[in-house]
Specification:
Helices cover about 55% and strands about 5% of the residues. With about 180 residues, the chain is mainly α. Helix 4 packs across helix 5, helix 5 packs across helix 6 and helix 6 runs antiparallel to helix 7. It is extended.
Length: about 180
């Protein structure tokens, strides 16, 4: 990723003691050498980007089955979504920092999306988060019940696990759904 902050010559960046990475944030580095840079806490490119296989799989879900996605398209999308996630997470993190909290939660991400102008996405994500929390609450309640009182009274624990009773129910996250009044 190219940034417009700091010296234009990469070698002069090393002299200043800063290396620029995602979101134009500067991370202090030692000028001793490449081996020491990797251990000084820099974010490697592979760590700041989503795995390209996952990005490609998500892209293919919306396309017709016989459609092909070029490597360049996957890499471009990988950069974009990784930057977007960093952007939204940074906004949510700033809010937490101002409130002297150390943990960013789903509500903070929804707030950040709304604050950055992604209101439709924020509303959809809030609805999803509410449904998810309800399902998690039901799941926890079912796990705390005696074995005979849970859903599947005549099933053994092995049968329930095979059916996926211990995994959260699948959600349909559709941004195109109409808003509820």
């Amino acid at each position: 990723m190219v940034d417009n902050i700091g010296p234009k010559n990469p070698s002069s960046r090393k002299e200043t003691g800063f290396k620029y990475c995602c979101n134009n944030y500067a991370a202090a580095v030692s000028t001793a050498g490449a081996d020491q840079e990797e251990t000084s806490g820099l974010i490697k490119e592979q760590d700041r980007l989503l795995p390209i296989a996952n990005v490609g799989r998500i892209m293919k879900q919306i396309l017709p089955p016989n459609a092909k996605v070029s490597k360049e398209a996957k890499e471009t999308m990988q950069e974009c979504v990784s930057e977007f996630i960093s952007f939204v997470t940074g906004e949510a993190s700033d809010k937490c920092h101002k409130e002297k909290r150390k943990t960013v939660n789903g509500d903070d991400v929804c707030w950040a999306l709304g604050n950055l102008g992604f209101d439709d996405y924020a509303e959809s994500l809030k609805r999803y988060l509410i449904k998810y929390r309800e399902a998690e609450g039901e799941r926890a309640a079912n796990q705390n019940k005696p074995a005979g009182a849970a859903a599947g009274e005549n099933q053994t624990t092995e049968e329930r696990q095979r059916r996926g009773a211990n995994s959260p129910p699948p959600f349909s996250f559709n941004l195109m759904e109409k808003r509820r009044a």
